[in-house]
Structures are given as C-alpha cells and as structure tokens.
Write a structure and sequence with these properties.
heterodimer; A: about 190 residues; mainly alpha; 8 helices; B: about 425 residues; mainly beta; Methylamine Dehydrogenase, Chain H; 2 domains; 5-stranded mixed beta sheet; 4-stranded antiparallel beta sheet; about 15% helix; about 35% strand; globular
Chain lengths: ~190, ~425
C-alpha cells in the first residue's frame, strides 16, 4: 500500500464513501479469490468477503496505520472465513466452484490432478489452509503472513510445515489407493 | 518477497516433496479471477446503510497508551487497586450513588446469550430444556406438515423423524453433494426436494423415502412449498414461481415474478390466500394470489434487510429474513403490501415458525427469538439448553417446536407451552 493509497484510506477513514469504494473495488477480486481457496465454496466465500468489506467500512476509523490497510483487510477476510467455516449454511443460491473452470484447455489428466489436490486440501485444518493460500497464491513471506494473521512467525512456519506434510501424506495415500485399485482391476 | 520460504519437511524430517509447485499450480487454476458482480453491489449497498464506528478521543489515547509500556500500565493498575482497597476499608468516601449498607441489589435474570456489545438489546433469555434431542450429523434443512418431520443433511442423508418415538424412522442416502439439495417440503402424499444442479424437483415417498419421480424444472430451482395437492416451486434462475400439479407431476402454471437469471426467487411461504416469495435480484418480496395465479404485489425491501431468506406469513405481519450477511429481518404489512419495519436479530436466522400467529426464528448466537410486529423488536428470547448454536431451521410439529442445532449436530424438541407465554 503506497502513500497515494494511504491518502485514499485516510479519506475513507473519515467517512468518504467514494474513497472506500475505490479501495474495495481494487481489492475485492483478490479477497474473494482468497476466500474461495480457503473455504472451497463459492457461496460461503461471497458471504465471507462481503462480511469483511462491511466490517472494514465500519471499523475503518480504528485503523491506526493507513499503510497497513491491505494487510488489515486480508486479516478481516481470513477472520470472516473462520466465522463462515463454523456455520452450517445452505441458504443462498449456490454456484459451485468447478475445478479448472478458468482453463478451458485443460486435459482430463489436469482435471483429475486438480480434483486430487482439491480433495487433499479440503482435509486440512482451516488454519493450515490459510497459511498455504497466503504463501502459494499470494506469494507472501513468513513474516508477511505473520503480520497479516497477527500470529508469530514460528507459528506460521509450523502451520506451513504440518500443512504441507499432511497434504503430501494425503496425496500419497490417494496414490496408493489408486495403485491398489489398478492392481485389482488388472 | 518469499526469500524466507523454507523447504517443507515432514514432521519426521522427510521432505514434503513437490507440494509447493503442486499447490501453486492448483491454486492458480481454481482461484476465480473475478468476484461476482452482485458481491460488490450487495457489499456497497450494505456499507451505504452501515455507520462507521465513531472514534472518541479516549480511543485515540488508548492507542497512544500502548506505547507507554508494561511498567507504566502495572503502576496504573496498582494505583487503581490501592484506591479500591481504600474505599473498601472506609478510608475514602463512597460515591453518593452507592447504596451503602442498604439491601443488595436484586439478582438479575441470568445473562442472556443475546449479542452484547454493539448488538441489539434483547429481553433476558428464558431457559427451556428440550424434551428430546435427536443426534443428526450435519443437519441442513428441516420441513414438516405439522405431523411428520423430514430433514436432509450435509452428508446427503434424507431422514424422516417419528415424533412418537423421537427417533429417525427412515433414512436414505442421496448420492449427490448436499448443496444440490436446496429445498424440502412434505405432506402425507409426497416429500419433495429441489435438485439445483440438474434443474429437477424430486419426489419421494414420505414414509419410506423411496424415490418416486422427478420433474424437470428447466432452470435451477430452490424453495418448495406444499399446499394440498399443489406444489409451489421457486424457480430461482427462471425468475418464476411455478405451480405443480402433484396428481400429474407436471408444471401447471408458471408465474413470472422477476427477471430470468441469478438470484431470482428463493423461498416460499403461504398465508392470507397468497404465496409469498423472496426475490433478491429485484430486492423485493412478491405476493402471488393462490387463487388466480396473478402477482398481487411486488414489495420493495430496503437495506439492511435483503429479501433472500425464509418467510412467514401471519395474519398481521409477513416476515422475510436475509441470507447474505445481514442479521435483519424485514416486516411487511399484508394489508398495505409495504415494508413497515425491520428487526435486528443479532445473528443470522433463516426460517420462521409461527406459534399463535407470532413468528419465531433461531438466529446464530444460541437462542430462539420472538418478533414483535408492533414494536418491531425481539420481545421474547428462549435459550434451549446448554451448547445450542442457533441459526438452524425451525418448524412446529406434533405439538412441539423443533429446531436444528447444526454445530452440535442434533434436532431439538421443545415444549410448545414455552412459546405460548
């Protein structure tokens, strides 16, 4: 977040709706993508993102450092995802996330691989998913993740370590299952 | 930026080989590039009606105080402690409003689980112990004809509950993902479940839960409502309310209530000779005559309520809940077909149950609340025992009120008397 944006943040902090709209307009796609990856449910991701945006507007006057707006917004979204994940929801119109929906040129092999990773990723605890998303999709360093989530760097490292290990174990287990099935059918 | 990214080892020291590139590639492939347009629209609509927090000078000071260090804070705490002890020992005068040696204040009613800071003010909660608690894994939706109860779960189970034995009397596995099963309605002639992904509404035997037939609804449909031999269907993507003849299992009439496309009619209720449906893409509740199949009124619902949740139609008030992050329910006066108020539930609630013409709803936060159509407030709060999460469907059946507790995974039965006071 540069100085120019810090000026816009400052205006939004003082109730300027247009300034807030400009800020959020820039960030919404990223926040929604993050929520989708963490929650693996497009509808829940919409709810979480919207909740974070409304909370950001409400709480903005409390933000002490306009330069921290981006990280602060990410943290609100992660927290909203946490809240959303705790809910048992079914209500709104659902548009399911289709794996590989962006790449029409995907082969069936890529679809299968994505599906395999998706299943393994869904098995991870929420806090591990979060750090892995911030690291691998948002390219954040451990320090940045720690700042975004407000947790110690050591905790970030261990969550990434255990998350990646669990994911690997899950993928390996699937491989073994597939191999066994192949042997049975052969 | 990522210079401190480590090689990821297994806890036992082995390397979690290749996980990083796999994750990066998968996330790049599945992450959406754009947020849906309505997300921005709805978010801005809500922020336009949401006040920013006021930051008072002491908030600023508290921010500054964080820099004074732990030592100063300890000194301040010690000083406060000394003053408190001095007051207690009679060394310092008491405040004039202190009741001194008089009788101690009356005990207050046990604290309500109502939202506290910044939330709406509710009456104290009355604790009512459930007369039955039926374990159900991941319950999602509840329906009843007043006698029998049906529900489906996030695991894809369709269940029938027998109120005589307070147990699951029949169960079948639905082989599709639970999000695809949106709406549920039943009576003694049939149990109906909407199937979002394939544009169908499925019919089951209400006793055995055996699949009977399915009807092609052409576009994605959501809410269903049974009224005698008629099944009403909220054809969400079709922008219509469809009338289905259950004798022939065919769509008899299609009543347009809004545009074709996303976020069309969601849920349904009946009352006052009308079918009521919530239509978020036009921000309205639409009233349809059950006799003539004509739209009687399109009732605009203003923020902060959003008309996409469940509905209840009482004789003097029609209620619609929100589903998109708003905790508000809107109240409609059916005599004028206008919105006359809204109530802040302090948490999200979805479906209503009418008891003696008064609407009850279970907002997230661990309670059941009754809505006052005159004061537009919550006027009674019931806490159904310990550990209740709230936010689940609620129905009246077999002389009891039943509510889903999604987090604890149970269906609770509560005595009706508690809701009649």
């Amino acid at each position: 977040m540069g100085t120019a944006n810090a000026v816009v943040v400052d205006r939004a902090m003082h109730g300027d709706h247009d300034a807030f709209a400009a800020l959020i307009g820039l960030a919404t796609n990223r926040l929604y993508a993050m929520a989708c990856l963490i929650l693996r449910d497009s509808h829940r991701a919409e709810d979480a993102t919207q909740e974070a945006i409304v909370q950001a507007w409400r709480e903005l006057p409390r933000l002490r450092d306009p330069d921290r707006f981006d990280a602060w917004l990410k943290r609100l979204t992660v927290n909203a995802c946490f809240d959303e994940a705790r809910r048992v929801r079914r209500r709104a119109e659902v548009s399911l996330l289709h794996v590989g929906e962006r790449s029409t040129a995907d082969t069936s092999g890529a679809f299968a691989e994505h599906d395999r990773v998706d299943r393994a990723f869904r098995r991870l605890p929420f806090d591990q998913r979060t750090v892995l998303v911030l690291q691998h999709h948002f390219d954040q360093s451990h320090t940045e993740i720690a700042e975004t989530l407000g947790i110690p760097v050591g905790t970030v490292k261990s969550r990434i370590r255990y998350g990646a290990a669990a994911l690997r174990a899950s993928l390996d287990a699937d491989d073994r299952k597939d191999a066994a099935a192949d042997r049975t059918t052969a | 930026m990522s210079g401190d990214r480590p090689v990821v080892p297994f806890p036992d020291g082995r390397e979690a080989r290749g996980v990083g590139p796999i994750l990066t590639s998968w996330m790049a492939a599945v992450a959406p590039e754009r947020a849906p347009e309505r997300l921005l629209e709805e978010s801005f609509a809500r922020t336009m009606t949401t006040r920013q927090l006021r930051v008072f000078p002491w908030h600023r000071r508290s921010g500054a105080r964080s820099s004074i260090g732990d030592r100063s804070r300890l000194l301040l705490a010690a000083l406060v402690g000394i003053v408190a002890v001095a007051i207690g020992a009679g060394l310092l005068p008491r405040s004039p409003i202190d009741n001194g040696g008089g009788p101690s204040p009356s005990p207050v009613v046990s604290p309500s689980p109502s939202p506290s800071f910044g939330g709406p003010s509710f009456p104290p909660a009355v604790t009512v112990e459930p007369t039955a608690s039926i374990p159900v894994e991941a319950p999602l939706a509840l329906a009843s004809d007043g006698t029998t109860i049906w529900l489906f779960t996030a695991n894809g189970d369709l269940l029938r509950i027998d109120p005589k034995t307070n147990s699951i009397a029949a169960s079948v596995k639905l082989d599709l993902t639970p999000d695809e099963f949106q709406g549920l309605a039943g009576n003694d002639s049939g149990l109906w479940v909407t199937k979002w992904s394939t544009h169908e509404v499925l019919r089951f035997d209400p006793l055995t839960l055996r699949a009977v037939t399915s009807i092609d609804t052409v576009t994605m449909s959501k809410g269903v409502l049974l009224s005698g031999e008629t099944l009403w269907l909220a054809n969400t993507r079709g922008g219509s309310v469809d009338r289905i003849d259950t004798a022939t299992n065919t769509i008899a009439t299609t009543i347009s209530v809004g545009p074709v496309g996303p976020s069309g009619p969601n849920w349904l209720a009946q009352g006052l000779g009308s079918i009521w449906t919530s239509v978020p893409n036009i921000g309205s509740v639409v009233r349809v005559s059950a006799a003539t199949n004509k739209v009687e009124a399109t009732i605009q619902i203003s923020a902060p309520a959003t008309p996409c949740g469940g509905l209840a139609a009482g004789s003097t008030a029609v209620w619609v809940s929100s589903c998109d992050g708003s905790d508000f329910v809107a109240q409609i006066d059916p005599s004028t077909n206008t919105q006359v108020g809204e109530v802040d539930l302090g948490g999200r609630g979805y479906t209503f149950a009418l008891v003696d013409d008064r609407a009850w709803i279970s907002p997230e936060g661990g309670q059941l609340v009754r809505l006052d159509p005159v004061g537009h407030v919550v006027d009674r709060v019931i806490a159904p025992g310990a550990g209740f999460s709230g936010g689940g469907d609620v129905v009246v059946a077999a002389g009891s009120l039943w509510v889903l507790d999604g987090v604890a995974g149970r269906l609770l039965r509560l005595p009706m008397d508690a809701f009649r006071q």
